[in-house]
Write a structure and sequence with these properties.
By secondary structure, the protein is an alpha/beta fold. The chain is 39% helix and 14% strand. The protein has 15 helices and 13 strands. The strands form 2 sheets. The protein has an 8-stranded mixed β-sheet with strand order 3-2-1-4-5-6-7-8, sandwiched between helices. The longest helix is centred in the middle third of the chain and has 32 residues. The chain is globular. 47% of the residues are buried. Bound molecules: ligand SAJ. The site of ligand SAJ has 21 residues, from helix 8.
């Protein structure tokens, strides 16, 4: 009989995972509390932007192997791929994990496997998920197998990385881990490593924390370089010729639902000891405010200034605005009374009004590039300058050909070469 999988949460991770299992011959029921998303998926469409995803979902739906619904069904394996956001006081919010786990309780049968994929504080599987699953009365690890297996895929390359990346599986016991391994081995080409659930949770958090701390170092380099009158980008390029150095890139801050969130799960657990982790978060969180202050300083002599914002998603070529530093920059600028023309060709839903390209540039005094969308490289500064009142461009990602913008009459500023002091400091 074909194995049945029920995937809870049809977002950036759950939907690709469900459709890949479906295209590998499993019968998959995708479950989401968002009825609109369920309806869109059932007609073979997608509600999020991710290269190649629509084709895979469409094929999975057409084959009859993938179905979406708002309620779970009986299955052999249940995969929980729901979000774990942070609360306003930087604590892990496990509400969705709890709701998803409780929603499957009536459907769990002896021999089932439950896998948590959501990024979670160390100990979540052991101390939070197991007590909920124990309510079934099934003997955990014997009648009901439980594992934690974090997703590690990069938005923008999810389908490729789901298949090619190695995978960590932490089992409640060995047999749980092995059962989960056998399942993922149906499509994962990378190596699969087995461990215990809490170690697997920590591995996931440390991967993203490693990146956050390194980005903080790059951002600090940008701040220091501005003060010292040197070019951070040149320092990075030259230092990275060292065989054991890999400096990351500075930017307007760290966004997304992973890197800007996950390190807090460690700070929350051990606030006294997670020192460098907490500090890196502070450094990265300050970047959008430094950028907004730079803009305000640059426009000090302009009356009733307007700024064109290029890009609001948290990184290039994705539509995701969660935790995007652009939100903070925009709020700071609005507080200072700056008018905005916001343009993002990838983003459809945003808290602020988005403009077309021309409207965003019309009567503008400054172009501020916040997201490294590829298409911004091909903007025509000559043409755009005609729409503007003043010609100033600030690139926070080193994406634009600033020489071409200069030729079109723009004064150019690159983050990493310019002072980034706070206005009130
Ligand atoms: N960023 C910089 N400088 C850099 C690299 C990134 O400022 O040198 C910024 C980006 O612009 C963005 C943020 O950091 O705002 C995060 O972007 P990212 O591309 O580094 O990572 P995510 O959040 O898209 O995906 C990460 C990945 N983790 C690692 O690379 C260790 C991915 O593999 C994880 O699966 C994902 O988090 C997740 O879901 O946890």
């Amino acid at each position: 009989m074909t194995a049945q999988i029920c995937v809870l949460g049809l977002g950036y991770i759950g939907l690709p995972t469900a459709s890949i299992f479906a295209s590998n011959g499993f019968k998959v029921q995708g479950v989401d509390i968002n009825a609109t998303a369920v309806e869109i998926i059932n007609r073979g469409d997608i509600h999020i932007e991710e290269p190649g995803l629509k084709t895979v979902v469409q094929a999975a739906i057409n084959s009859g192997n993938l179905k979406a619904s708002t309620l779970p069904v009986e299955a052999d394996t249940f995969i929980l791929a729901v979000p774990t956001p942070i609360t306003s006081d930087k604590k892990a919010d496990l509400t969705f994990v709890e709701a998803a786990a409780r929603s499957i309780l009536p459907y769990l049968r002896p021999g089932n496997l439950v896998i948590l994929e959501s990024t979670s504080p160390p100990g979540t599987t052991q101390d939070f998920l197991l007590p909920i699953l124990a309510e079934t009365g099934l003997e955990l690890g014997k009648d009901l197998y439980v594992a934690y297996s974090p997703e590690r895929v990069l938005p923008g390359q999810i389908l490729k990385e789901l298949i090619q990346n190695s995978r960590i599986i932490g089992g409640l016991n060995r047999v749980s881990a092995e059962k989960a391994r056998d399942l993922y081995a149906s499509f994962v080409e990378g190596e699969i490593f087995l461990t215990d659930a809490t170690t697997a949770e920590m591995v996931k958090l440390m991967e993203n924390t490693y990146r956050d701390v390194n980005i903080a170092l790059a951002n600090e380099l940008a701040v220091l370089s501005g003060d010292l009158g040197i070019n951070a980008w040149e320092v990075i390029e030259l230092a990275n010729h060292h065989p054991r150095v890999h400096l990351h890139k500075p930017g307007p801050g760290v966004g997304g639902h992973c890197i800007s969130v996950d390190p807090w799960f460690l700070v929350e657990r051990l606030p006294q000891d997670a020192k460098i982790i907490g500090l890196a978060r502070q450094i990265n969180d300050e970047m959008p405010h430094r950028v907004a202050d730079l803009v305000v300083r640059s426009l000090r002599d302009v009356k009733d200034p307007k700024v064109t914002i290029l890009g609001v998603s948290y990184k290039g070529n994705v539509d995701d605005v969660r935790e995007s530093p652009a939100l903070e920059v925009i709020e700071d600028l609005e507080k200072k009374g700056v008018r905005l023309g916001i343009y993002d060709p990838h983003v459809k839903h945003f808290s602020h009004e988005l403009a077309g390209l021309e409207d965003a540039f019309l009567d503008s005094d400054c172009v501020l590039l916040l997201t490294d969308h590829s298409e911004f490289k091909y903007l025509n500064p000559q043409e755009l300058s005609k729409l503007m009142r003043h010609r100033l461009v600030i690139d926070t990602r080193k994406l634009l050909d600033l020489a071409a913008w200069q030729q079109a009459g723009f004064e150019t500023t690159l983050l990493g070469r310019v002072g980034l002091g706070r206005e009130n400091e």
